[in-house]
């Protein structure tokens, strides 16, 4: 590298170092993303809530659910009298999943949802309707919340010192629904009372169970609970959950989820490491530009080794066909299909029972009767000492129909 290039590279690196220093000296901006993740320590995370949860609910009753509700509720070992708890900015269950949840509630369980958007199927089934609340005359959107029960109602309403969108129930079934809480926006900087109450917390029966809906999920966030008075509101909200039975806390419907972080992602999400990484990449690029050209060498072409897998497969298949060992071929087809199910749908294949058939149907989208016919025939083939060509052809047809059905 010539002296001139060295001077240019040094000036460029010095300039970048000054930029990095200026960026690093800036205060970290507050992240107001409504993540609701239990690992999030940002204002709208729920780290504090889950840390304090064992003080309100016995730890032995708490269990986290990291899979979709439809899949979770296929588990027939869930004890009756349990509660399913959701908290997020939006909890959207499609129609089939909503009906599955309501069916589970109707068997004597409790559903608790705290969100600004709730499945329309659930709302329609309970004769409820949600609306967003806003006032053009009131620029501040800071909510006040309180309870309607005199034993829980505070002398002064609980306050969130942050402008957020608000949702309320503008239609309820007054004959069946119990109003548990209300809210309003701060008016004229007066946070001492709720002047125009709107319903944001209700409880309604559904067959043998109960549905509790709450439209102020911020009550479970760090920014709200770090105020000691507000923490009392959160605890009182939880008091409406049954005092007995398991409480399953959903971790699937979250705006922010815990996930594995790669080393590069860790570097790029930290501003100090990010700029150091960029400086290193730029230095490497400069080295390639100014030094790489002078030291390039031709690279010999190396032919890749031939792939003998297909020839090997044909040879083995020919051996089985020559021996007319139809049963061995059938066993290979069955084992290959079970491996396909394990790898594609993450299902255990030790027990090919009705529960396995239901889970495979739910995950694959195939008709349950089609899957049952296939599984029953596989079990029958396994029990046979000899397999005819017609039986082998039928097995192959059933397997191909399963794989090719959409």
Structure description:
It is built from 14 helices and 13 strands. With 406 residues, the chain is an alpha/beta fold. It has three domains: 57 residues; 204 residues, 3-Layer(aba) Sandwich (Rossmann fold); 96 residues, no CATH class. It has a nine-stranded mixed beta sheet. A two-stranded parallel sheet has the order 3-5. It has a two-stranded antiparallel sheet with strand order 6-9. The longest helix has 22 residues.
List the topology elements:
Elements: H1 3-24, H2 47-56, E1 62-65, H3 69-72, E2 83-87, E3 90-91, H4 95-106, E4 110-114, E5 117-118, H5 120-125, E6 129-133, E7 143-147, E8 158-159, E9 166-171, E10 178-185, E11 198-206, E12 209-214, H6 222-225, H7 228-238, E13 247-250, H8 263-268, H9 271-292, H10 309-323, H11 326-345, H12 354-364, H13 368-383, H14 389-404
Parallel strand pairs: 1-13, 2-4, 2-13, 3-5, 4-12
Antiparallel strand pairs: 6-9, 7-8, 7-10, 10-11, 11-12
Domain DUF4350: 39-238
Pfam family, one: DUF4350
Organism: Leeuwenhoekiella blandensis (strain CECT 7118 / CCUG 51940 / KCTC 22103 / MED217)
Defining key terms:
406 residues, alpha/beta, Rossmann fold, 3 domains, nine-stranded mixed β-sheet, two-stranded parallel sheet, 14 helices, 43% helix, 16% strand, DUF4350 domain-containing protein, DUF4350
């Amino acid at each position: 590298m010539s002296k001139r290039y060295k001077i240019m590279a040094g000036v460029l690196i010095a300039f970048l170092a000054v930029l990095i220093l200026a960026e690093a000296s800036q205060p970290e901006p507050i992240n107001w993303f409504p993540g609701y993740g239990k690992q999030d320590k940002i204002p709208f995370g729920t780290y504090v809530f889950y840390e304090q949860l064992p003080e309100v609910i016995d730890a032995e009753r708490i269990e986290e659910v990291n899979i979709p509700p439809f899949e979770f509720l296929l588990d027939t070992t869930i004890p009756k009298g349990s509660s399913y708890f959701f908290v997020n900015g939006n909890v959207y269950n499609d129609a089939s999943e909503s009906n599955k949840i309501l069916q589970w509630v109707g068997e004597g369980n409790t559903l608790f949802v705290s969100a600004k958007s709730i499945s329309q199927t659930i709302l329609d089934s309970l004769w409820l309707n949600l609306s967003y609340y806003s006032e053009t005359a009131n620029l501040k959107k800071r909510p006040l919340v309180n309870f309607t029960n005199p034993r829980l109602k505070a002398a002064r309403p609980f306050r969130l010192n942050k402008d957020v969108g608000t949702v309320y129930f503008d239609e309820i079934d007054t004959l069946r629904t119990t109003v548990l809480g209300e809210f309003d926006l701060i008016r004229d900087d007066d946070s001492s009372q709720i002047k125009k109450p709107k319903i944001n917390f209700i409880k309604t029966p559904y067959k043998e169970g109960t549905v509790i809906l709450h439209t102020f999920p911020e009550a479970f966030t760090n920014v709200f609970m770090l105020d000691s008075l507000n923490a009392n509101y959160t605890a009182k909200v939880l008091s409406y959950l049954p005092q007995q039975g398991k409480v399953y806390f959903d971790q699937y419907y979250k705006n922010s989820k815990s996930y594995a972080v790669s080393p590069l992602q860790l570097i790029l999400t930290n501003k100090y490491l990010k700029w150091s990484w960029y400086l290193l990449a730029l230095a490497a690029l400069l080295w390639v530009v100014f030094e790489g050209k002078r030291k390039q060498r031709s690279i010999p072409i190396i032919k890749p080794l031939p792939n003998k897998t297909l020839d090997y497969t044909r040879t083995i298949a020919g051996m089985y066909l020559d021996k007319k060992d139809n049963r061995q071929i059938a066993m290979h087809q069955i084992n290959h299909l079970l491996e396909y199910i394990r790898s594609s749908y993450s299902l255990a294949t030790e027990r090919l029972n009705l529960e396995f058939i239901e889970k495979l149907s739910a995950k694959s989208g195939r008709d349950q009767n089609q899957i049952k016919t296939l599984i029953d025939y596989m079990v029958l083939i396994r029990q046979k000492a000899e397999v005819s060509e017609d039986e082998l052809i039928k097995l192959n047809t059933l397997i191909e129909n399963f794989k090719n059905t959409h």
